[in-house]
Amino acid sequence: MTFSEQLNEYLSVLNCSAKELSQISGLSNSVISRYRSGERVPRPESEKLNQLCEGIYLLSKEKAASKRTSASITSFTKDEIYTAFTNTLKQPDNSRLCENFNHLLLASSVSLADLARFLNYDSSYLSRIRSGARIPSDPEWFCSETARFIVLRTPPSDRVFIEKLTGQSIKDINDSAALCQLLSGWLLNTNTVSPQINQMQSFLEKLDQFDLNNFIRSIRFDELKVPTMPIQLPGSRSYFGIREFMTAELDYLKATVLSSSMENVIMYSDMPMEEMSKDPDFPKKWMFGMAMLLKKGLHINMIHNVNRPFSEMMLGLESYIPMYMTGQISPYYLNETPNQVFGHFLKVSGTVALSGECIAGFHNDGKYYLTKKKDEVSYYRHRAQALLSHARPLMRIFRSDNAIQYKTLRTRLLASGSQRNIVASLPIYTMTDDLLCSIFAQNYVSKSDAAKIFSYTSAERKRVEAFLATASLTDEITPIDKTEFERYPLRLFLADLFLEHDIVYTWDTYQKHLALTKQYADTHDSYSVKISTTPAFRNIQIQICEGKWAVISKNNSPAIHFVVEHKKLRHAIENMVMPLVET
Q1: Rounded to whole angstroms, how far apart are CA atoms 267 and 302?
Q2: Widest pairwise Cα distance in the chain
């Protein structure tokens, strides 16, 4: 029995309303409602759990005395009630099944709606299983049928994701029933091998650790010189075979860097990249060429192919992190699914175009065509612009140079409903001005910066107070001990102000702010703090409005915000961290 089921059973036996329990326990109606729905659970040994047990005990005595319920209610003791609840909090909740189910949907290309019809379930119910809010009533049947659907709907050539999920080779498994059993066992977590890697977690960890200044130094970007002497390239050329395709890409980058045009670059490819990526030199040369484009000051509109296994898509995005951080790349995607027969390639700058085509599965037999002829470049540029007009932003990226646009968008996003934050530090809106002054004095903060932060903090307090009147807000924090703190002191998280220097806590000021945050949760029914067991991010904060948007904010090096509304990416962020207990 779950915590919510135990609570609802008590209310049913006592013939008691949530309002009555709220009044006698001192817990708010909203807290009782979240406990009943399973959205929240109290922490074992917490004051809220004690209040709840005391309230049920007093109600049992009151209602038994009034003879409105069975006399057996008098056998409810405080210890029995407390034990019943704490046992539910210690129970395994099959959260691994939900986590694996989410990974399976992300890795495969099946539709949740199609799976729901196959299982005769509601799509919304599957979404709740996916998020961990619900557990299948018959986990074994659910996993078996889900695995059968996945295997039936996935062609053998596209089943590589099953190997990545389960960690077991499937090349010798020709029997569909055996493959279903393997996948079902992994879903249930009965297999001994389960090396599932959370690609979204990996992407965020790399983003968290990335320092643009260190990267620039490591590749000596500041020392790069954009050549002015033209390298002679033909007016047009055709390329055949994988080896020549790599040459074509590098020739295109060279021609673009050497041209006098500063027009934006448009890039799109749904061609396979596996063979090119295996070459030991090509990725380095390609990255150097891209660095030269950015050094020249060109803006790149990159249309990503997201209609591929999730792990491959995230690996591609990881490789673009350095370029995203420059603010010179705008990532897009096509909402329509490209056909599965032809491969396409199109990259266009102001004076150079590179086009490619192949039949799916026969990349080596395709053709790339590079041209600098004015009329042909004009044709391909119009084609690329038409393609871009069909594309949607994969992520919107904001740095200090477009801070005003970010502020406008942020105001709209934060008014759209209840949200959850995975925070690198503590929330600024629970900070007092006195504590801020102490931190400023310890960090020698300038008067102008202090004024900005005071103004921002005051505005955030007012915003959050108004927000909590109509919606709920949860902050997930990761505990940090003194030893770790002394190695990696936490900083005020001020990404919204695009400040490029650190303002750090001392252990004492951090403890004071932590106490203020817990106090804020105690005095605001719609605000809660949760303890996360996942490794802490040090430089990024994630804000989530489920079903609508996610914002990944990096505090510095540089301060930057990624606004994600793409469904697949957003859902991966939403389900990256499972719901945990309150403080």
Answers
A1: 5
A2: 98
